[in-house]
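Posting this for the archive.
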Amino acid sequence: MPPRPSPSLIPALPELPSGARVLVACSGGLDSTVLLHALATVGAPGLTAIHVHHGLQAAADDWAQQTAAFCAALAVPMILCHARIAADDAAGPEGAAREARYALLRSQMQPGDLLVTAHHRDDQAETVLLRLIRGVGVHGLAAMRPLADFAPGQLWRPLLDQPRAALQAYAKQHALRWIDDPHNDDPRYARSWLRQQFLPGLHARFPQTGESLARTARLAGEAAGLLDELAAADHDAAADRTALSVGALQALSPARRHNLIRWWLTRQQFRAPFAVTLDRIDRELLMVAADAEPLIHWPGCELRRHGDRVFAMAPLAPEPPFGEWGVWRGIEAPALPVGCGELLSATAPPQPIRIRSLHPGESIRLAGQAHRKTCRNLFQQRGIPRWVRRRLPVLEAGDGATCIVGIGATDGWQDFLATTGWKARWRHALAGLPSPLAADTAPLAPDCP
C-alpha cells in the first residue's frame, strides 16, 4: 500500500448519502492519475474511474488500455465511454470535447454520486484569464467552484488549491506513470497557448499570479453567490408557475432583470445568453405587444412569450403536417410527429382510434354545450399559446366521438369512454399549457379542461 498522501493534497470528502459512489474522471494524464491514486489511498467509498475515449488521436486506444491497467493495479473499476465529436461543431474542438465529456460523465452518475475532477490551481488561473479575455461577469470569473451541484449528484474539484508543481511532486514521490497528451502543448488551442506562451512570462514578472487569479475566482464566487440569492428572491416575486411574469420583469432594473433571467435559465440547465442577447430580450420580447408571441433563441434554448408570461424551452421541432397521424389499434399508440409527445394507455383501445392534426378553422361542440365553438376562441380563452396549438393531437373514435387535447371532447367521446372504461394519457414536453395538461403526463378527456 502506498504511503498516505499529505492531508493538504486531498481535503476531506463531502458528506455523501448512503450508497453513493465517488466517480473520478480519469484521462490517464498527470492530474487525474494523481487524483485517482490519492483517492484510492484514502479509501474513497465506491471509488470508480471513468475514462472518456474521445477518438481524436491515433493513440486514444492505447491511452484507454494504459488507464485501465492503472485502475486494475489500484483495484479500482473503470468505466470506458466513447465520445462522438463532430469536426464542424460550432463550439470548436476544445469546447465540443468538453461538452461531450461532461455529458458522458453525467450519464454514468446515479442519484447522490460525487463526480470528481482533477482541476488544479493552474487550471483555475487559465480559466480566469480566458474568461477575462471573453468579457464575462462575476459568475464567469468565479470560474470553477470546489463543490457544485451536478445533477443527479455533485461535482467536486478537491485540487483547486494545489499548484501543478504539487501534483508533479506527488507523482514523483509515488513513482506514478501517466500519459502526455500532445494537444496540451499545441498552441493552436487557446488554453495551451496561454500555458506555453503567456503564463511563463507573467509568472516570471509576477510570481504570485496563480494564487492571485485563484483568489479572484474565490471572491467572484462570493459575489456570484450574493447575486444568486437576489435572483432567488426576485424569482419568488416574478414566477408564474413554470414561466416568468412580463410585468414583474419590466418592474426590475435592467441589471437585476438580466441577473434573474440568467439564474432562471441556468437552473433549468440552459446555457445563459450573452449580454447582447439579454438586450434583445428586453427590446424584442418584453417591450412588444402582448399578442405578438415573439421568439428569441440561441444554441440549445428558446425564449417565447405568450401574454404576460415568458417561457424557456428546448428548441421546438418544425410544426407537424396537417392531416392524419396514424391509427391506434394495439396497446402502443402510433408515433406522433416530433415535438408532439406520445399517447399512452395500459390497454389497447376497444376500437381503432384515428389520430390527426387540428384542421384549420376547426370548431367543436363540447360535451354538455348547446353550440359549437371555434378552437381558436377556446384556445384564447384557455391561454394556450400558438406554438402549442398545432402540436396537440386530435383523437376520433367514430362519428361524433372526438377529443381535442387541450380543449375538451364531444358528448360522443364521453359516451365512448363511459361505455368502454378505456383510459389514455398524453406525455409531452411542451411549455405553456394550463393545468392539468402542464404535467409531463396529462390526462385526456374527460379530465382535460
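Residues 241-313 form a domain with the Chorismate Mutase Domain, subunit A fold (CATH 1.20.59.20). The two ends are 67 Å apart (CA to CA).
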